[in-house]
Each structure stands twice: as C-alpha cells, then as structure tokens.
Design goal:
Layout (H helix, E strand, L loop, with lengths): L28 H14 L4 H16 L13 H22 L4 H18 L1 H5 L1 H15 L30
Helix pairs in contact: 2-3, 2-6, 3-4, 4-6
Length: 171
C-alpha cells in the first residue's frame, strides 16, 4: 500500500507563486527573451546608421509633397528630391540586411545626402541631409563585434612542445 504525500497549501495573497518544473511563472520572461534576441541581432549590423539614414531619406522624400507654401521648389526638381529619398531609404535597407555591404551603402548614402542639398529643398531643410550624412558615415565606420575568445593579439607567446629546439640546430 502506498501513501500519497499531502497536497501543498496554496500560497497566500502576499506570497510569491512557486515556479513549475517546466519553467518560471514570470509572464515577462518571453518579452525579456525577445528583447535579448533583438539586442543580439541589432549588434550584428549597423543598426543606428540604418535608422539615421532612413530618417534622412524619409524627410527628403516627403518634404517635396508638403503644402505649396512650405516648399521652395516645385516641378521636376521635386521628383529628383523624391528619387534621392528613395535611394537613401534603399541604402538604409541594404545596410540593415547586408551588413557586409555597409561601406558601399554608406558612401552612396553620404553622396545622396549631399546631392539632396540642391535637388530637394536644401536637403530636406538641412535636416534630411544632416541625418543621411550622419547615417552614411556611421555605416562606413561601423565594425562588427569581435569574438571574445582570443586574447593576446598578434605577438602572443604559444607554449612549445617539450624537446623542440629553436635555433640553428647546434647545441
């Protein structure tokens, strides 16, 4: 005959709920895991360079569509400004999705940002131009994280196996 253990009492109103063996009872745990995964993904690419370049492209693209009293140039020049904004947003996507092409995309973003000055209402009233040049230069200068496993650098001393001589061979 086996005797079952007595049931555990239910926790009171101020006591924490014990976690199950399957995992914690914390409802915020999946959110923390998602934030950690996003943080890891973000650090493997020039994320902030992409944000600034895309914002600059957005400003340059949508400023020619502003009401007539707020823009300085109307006509074919507005189309050129919108094309510059599209190029900048495309370069932002390229930086984000293909971090290996960050140098090319960064240089093109800087050129398109500076070219937006005469093409699109003073570069999106200077705001879009400054943001796109900032983002392009950040993308050009971004480096991926190096693995933390190796220390010592280029001239690190390695242990030699016993019995191996170093030199001309004469003892």
């Amino acid at each position: 005959m086996t005797i079952d253990p007595p049931p555990e009492p239910a926790p009171g109103p101020g006591e924490p709920v014990p976690s199950s063996p399957a995992g914690p009872a914390d409802p915020v745990a999946p959110v923390r895991g998602a934030r950690a995964a996003f943080r890891h993904w973000r650090r493997t690419r020039p994320f902030w360079a992409t944000v600034w370049t895309a914002l600059g492209g957005f400003v340059i693209f949508f400023l020619p569509m502003a009401p007539l009293g707020k823009i300085l140039q109307v006509g074919v020049g507005g189309i050129a400004g919108m094309a510059g904004g599209v190029v900048l947003m495309a370069m932002a996507l390229l930086m984000l999705l293909l971090p290996g092409q960050r140098h090319t995309a960064g240089v093109i973003a800087v050129i398109a940002g500076v070219a937006s000055f005469p093409l699109s209402n003073l570069g999106g009233l200077f705001v879009g131009m400054v943001l796109s040049v900032l983002g392009g230069s950040m993308a050009f200068g971004w480096l991926p994280e190096k693995p933390a496993g190796r220390k010592g650098g280029l001239f690190r001393r390695r242990p030699r196996p016993a019995g191996v001589s170093v030199g001309s061979g004469s003892a």
